[in-house]
Specification:
MetI-like fold; 2 domains; 9 helices; mainly alpha
């Protein structure tokens, strides 16, 4: 079976599983007589999305914008810190404990500080999204650099390359699989940070819509917000996976030897 046929088969199977999940959800709600205040049916959520999309669209764009900007900032800072920590034992010993301690702080406790500094709105949401992305990127980039083969570095040193040349031409390319693995984690965390800030200190965004809807006991609207977040998360995850395949395809050779 060709690779294209296997990909089509996997996509069809994924679609059937997804459709089956929503069908079972709908049937369970009808059969058990579950109240809309507890768990709305998928059909009700679809109706809300259809009817309220003109209202939800600006909030969706706001959440997507905030998440993407925060994600980009977090990744940039994470790569820089990871490169420093992964290439220097001194930097690792000094900075790593600080990063672990900072990442252990619940981000809900950081949002009020950002609000005091920058006021409510977009900036605290961007910063919360960025902060929550940094740690997984730092850890994975530093790990990728630390696992670079010493023989490659020795060859470059013999050829007269500087430490920066070795980092740029050997370390970072070898760390790319680790980086993209961290991006898949960071993009989901970025949405967590954005929505967390929007529920606390914003008047626009899906998080704000959800907190208002929950206060009004509009559970279908809350689930509509969750559905939008899920779709956005899957889309950005797919973008990360696409670039990973293009830039680190050499790490996925096992697909060429698959027997099924």
């Amino acid at each position: 079976m060709s690779q294209l046929s296997k990909n089509i088969q996997h996509n069809v199977l994924s679609a059937f599983v997804l459709i089956g999940f929503f069908v079972l959800w709908e049937m369970a709600c009808v059969a058990l007589g579950v109240s809309d205040l507890v768990l709305p049916k998928p059909s009700q959520i679809a109706v809300v999305l259809w009817q309220k999309m003109p209202l939800l669209w600006p909030h969706t764009v706001q959440t997507l914008y905030t998440t993407v900007v925060g994600f980009a900032i977090g990744v940039l800072v994470g790569v820089l810190l990871g490169a420093v920590i992964g290439s220097s034992k001194l930097a690792y010993d000094v900075a790593y404990p600080l990063l672990v301690g900072f990442s252990s702080i619940p981000k809900v406790a950081v949002v009020p500080i950002f609000v005091v500094w920058f006021g409510s709105g977009t900036v605290p949401a961007i910063l919360t999204s960025a902060v929550i992305c940094i740690f997984p990127v730092v850890v994975n980039v530093a790990t990728g650099l630390a696992t670079t083969e010493p023989e490659l570095e020795d060859v470059f040193r013999v050829l007269g390359a500087s430490k920066l040349d070795i980092l740029w031409n050997v370390g970072l390319p070898r760390a790319l699989p680790y980086l993209f693995a961290s991006l898949k984690i960071a993009i989901t965390l970025a949405f967590v940070g954005t929505v967390l800030s929007e529920t606390v200190a914003a008047n626009k965004g899906i998080g704000n819509v959800m907190i208002i809807a929950s206060g009004n006991f509009d559970v279908p609207m809350v689930f509509a917000g969750l559905f939008i977040l899920a779709v956005l998360g899957i889309a950005l995850y797919a973008v990360s996976a696409f670039f990973e395949l293009r830039m680190t395809g050499w790490t996925q050779r096992k697909n060429d030897f698959s027997l099924s």
